[in-house]
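Researcher: Before we compare anything, I want clean individual predictions. No alignment, no superposition, just each chain on its own. First chain goes here; please echo the sequence and then give the structure tokens.
Model: Echoing the first chain and its structure:
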Amino acid sequence: MLSWVEIDAQRLRNNIDAFRTSIAAGTALMVVVKANAYGHGLETVAPVAAERADWLGVNCIDEALAVTRLGIRKPVVILGHTPLEQLESVVRNSYRQVLYRLDVARALSGAATKLGIAAKVHLKIETGTNRQGIPVGHLASFINELKKFPALEVEGAYTHFANIEDTLDPSFAQSQVRKFKEALGIIEREGVRPSQVHASATAGALLYAEMDFSMVRLGIGTYGIWPSRETQIAARERGRLLSLAPVLTWKTRVAQVKDVNTGDCVGYGLTYRASRPMRLVVLPIGYYDGYDRKLSNSGRALIHGQPASVVGRVAMNMTMLDVTDVGADLDDEVVLVGRQGNAEIRVEELAEKIGTIPYEVVARINPLIPRVVSDNSGRGR
């Protein structure tokens, strides 16, 4: 393999267990495996997550079907849009569909009537993020229209916080909770009583136990990554700093070792010029694989447990490292993200260097790169 991702199954279990102990007893736990399990590999992660989760969350019908093909029988919620022509498959497989459009409700009802089973939906309530969702002021009329559609069951109601990760100020999240509770009151007055009510994702579950309702949606925290530095600070202040361990290690191997003379340039654009005789290695990964071009002349990787700097531009399929002081041989293992020996490169480090968030770094690791499970069940954190 040119490059591969190792998934530590026991760390994954431990992370979920840590959240389980931090939420109120009886609160259901949905583990979100959308976007190829946040880049960790849906087919690799979902079976392990399903051991601990009550529900699984995905973005689209294709992801839901992939979960089903794995033989997983936990309820699956589709949190993103499903085209009308694919809604019969949603009903046939008993997936739960997010609902905020009446034409989707009509199509779900038609499919459910045809198949002779209920179509279960989770109403998405708009409380301030202004993405998909039903505005609170339109909710009563929306529900009255839903009552006209047979075989439609409102199993859930939920919302999503807009500013819970990027700040230590909880005021906007609290305003969203007030709107959500108002919406829940409207839903109840209309005679609808969803059994699953959820608002908190990872940061909410960590910081605001009063916002858990009957279920929480665990996303980035599943994978041992904190949503933000602010979340980690706030969790520490509240005495809720869970022990989370990164699940993902991204590796490759040395494809070539070469010597470079003083004054020689490295890579496209001649952006790096050697100031001394150097030894370089070429790695068979680049920005196509998800190793961001902004890591040119700024990233680092681990060889023999030591950091080696990226020199020159990251190319589409190749990256060069300075190993003059480290040493390297052909086919040596290189760690791009994760631990090797006593050294570690965390996703957060890469995110800071390229000016983005950890979510994007892991989600953009090319899905064609193999994901391999390492199950060290006897190893601690």
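Researcher: Okay. Second chain, same rules.
Model: Second chain and its structure:
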Amino acid sequence: MTGTPDTPGSSAWPAPSRAGTGSGLAVLVNANAKRGGRRVAVQIARALPGASVRLTKSAQEIDAWLRVLTPPRGVLAAGGDGTAVALVNALARLHADSAPLPTMGILPLGTGNGWAHALGAPKLHRCLEMLAGLRGTLPTRRCSLIEVEGTLTHFAGSGWDAMILEDYKRQLEASKGPGRHFSKSVYGYLSATLLRTAPKVAVFGNPNVIIENLGPEVYTVDEDGHPRRMEGVAPGAVIYDGPVGIASVGTCPEFGYRFKAFPFAERMPGFMSVRAYSRGALGAVTTIPRLWRGMHPLQGMHDWLATHIRMTFSRAVSLQIGGDAHGMRRTIEYRAASRGIGMVDWRRMG
């Protein structure tokens, strides 16, 4: 692999050791991804000669690698949503708030790959073929981001989505032998939902949540899916007060496994999609096919487009940021980030 930093922390960026189809590209490979590891890193380096390919396991290793790169024409995250979020935040730490972030892309290696699928990414080998055959500038789409507790992400939330992620990971850790392949699939995700999360929700019920608008304006979504500005909703106004099973935000339509969790996420650039689902476990289970496809309107689903909100729950709830668990919270603030990022648009690559 070329471009591996030999002086971490140095401000000098060594040039690629040889020219090739990957010249000017930097690829971060998550050693902990579903299909990550040295074998995949070598596969990428062979497919994109001249690229800087780095296998990392921690945020510190990502930061050290970025500091010694020459400004690339594109930085790619080879992993899942968690890897992409880690790279976005590493790039944000490296570049001042006023500076634009470098072009970024995602090579799908993770479990759900929600952001990669939303950007049209095919399977890894096809992505590499497309990059190797590209002549010219990487085609991009401007993507909005969300800031939560100092972290930039494309989706986050509390309630069943966070509980399902935790239950899915516990189920995966407990699975052995041939059953592990099933547990890594969409069917494993669904089985964790039905056999682990739904029974807990049925026993404990939904908490209540107060959602306050803290931004200058907020929009609701009518039955035809059109944004409608809410009149008289000043900062501090309550836009929802009631039971909630899912209370999430997103700027990316997909949650993973092509689950269209935020069908209105890209309707208004600079805004985040805010969703609150108020039905109980039984109602959710019977509605899974419509939920999965992002159908609208949906009984019990409340939708807004906002720039800054606060959620206060009647009891501590699980929080997930970009698909990674972040413990329990009673109060959470979400803000549309002031900076977005240009992401490789794979649909325009072919």
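Researcher: What stands out in the second chain?
Model: The radius of gyration is 21 Å. Additionally, The first strand starts at residue 25 and ends at 30.
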